[in-house]
Amino acid sequence: MSGHSKWSTIKRKKGAIDAKRSKIFSKIIKEINIAVKENGAISDSNPRLRMAIQNAKGVNMPKENIQRAINKASNDDKNYQEITFEGYAPGGIAIFVECLTDNNNRTISNIRTIFNKRGGNLGNNGSLSFIFNRKGVFTITKENIKNPEEFELEIIDAGIEDIDDDGDVFTLYSPLENFGKVQKKLDELKIDVDNAELRRVPNNYKTLDIESSQKVLKLIEEIEDEDDVQNVFYNLEISDELLKSME
């Protein structure tokens, strides 16, 4: 998982300083909207909203923007639906797409067009269930942790099953059922989390040559750029060599 963690970190750092920042903010605002509509505007009693606020802070969204999004969601008549897509990129790479949309037909058309244009194909929902497991994933900058060894022991007791150490960043993985418990423990420890999410983690990864891998990543990035797309998960192996070629 280490290569994927590094690639996610690289994308996050780039996204924080380039034109994609507005898209990141837009995705978080949508998540805030649906969280508020589901369980109200009080973050203490709304885990989904708490996670969205946490992620907003992780990408330096101003506090006033966060509060404005919460206030607007409480009075907004726009309703977003959660829809997903499952398919394959060239080379047999599995891709799982999560969307929040107020127009299903538009989203379906746009996602299908990208897959077709880039040589992929969409499958039926559930066709990739044997490839991906849903897990909690927390990304934390190491400088936010005073005692890493003590922290690892405490967080493992809270339900973390795997930790990736990528130099400056810890990426923590928990079973789906432990997500809330880990989130609560991090709050108790007063540790700032860069990003927390429920991620679809592949059971295994598939390796392609550099040129083929780059084509797959271009397809993935084009999907990620769609306004209705919240997350894209895939089982392409992200090697150090591939990372260097994408820098």
Summary?
The protein is 47% helix and 23% strand.
Describe the protein's topology.
Blueprint: H1 2-17, H2 21-39, H3 47-58, H4 63-75, E1 81-89, E2 93-101, H5 104-117, E3 121-123, E4 132-141, H6 148-157, E5 162-165, E6 169-175, H7 179-188, E7 195-202, H8 210-224, E8 229-234, H9 240-246
Antiparallel strand pairs: 1-2, 1-3, 2-8, 4-6, 4-7, 5-6
Helix pairs in contact: 2-3, 2-4
CATH topology of the largest domain: Alpha-Beta Plaits
Q: Report mean pLDDT, rounded to a whole number.
A: 89
The computed structural class is: alpha+beta
Spatial order of the strands in the main sheet?
3-1-2-8
Radius of gyration: 18 Å
- Broad shape: globular
Helix percent reads: 40-55%
What's the end-to-end separation, in Å?
19 Å
CATH architecture heading of the largest domain: 2-Layer Sandwich
Structural notes for this entry:
By secondary structure, this protein is of the alpha+beta class. The protein folds into 3 domains: 74 residues, Integrase, N-terminal zinc-binding domain (Arc Repressor Mutant, subunit A); 93 residues, YebC, transcriptional regulation domain (Alpha-Beta Plaits, 2-Layer Sandwich), CATH 3.30.70; 71 residues, Alpha-Beta Plaits (2-Layer Sandwich). Helices cover 47% and strands 23% of the residues. A 4-stranded antiparallel beta sheet has the order 3-1-2-8. Helix 2 crosses helix 4. 31% of the residues are buried.
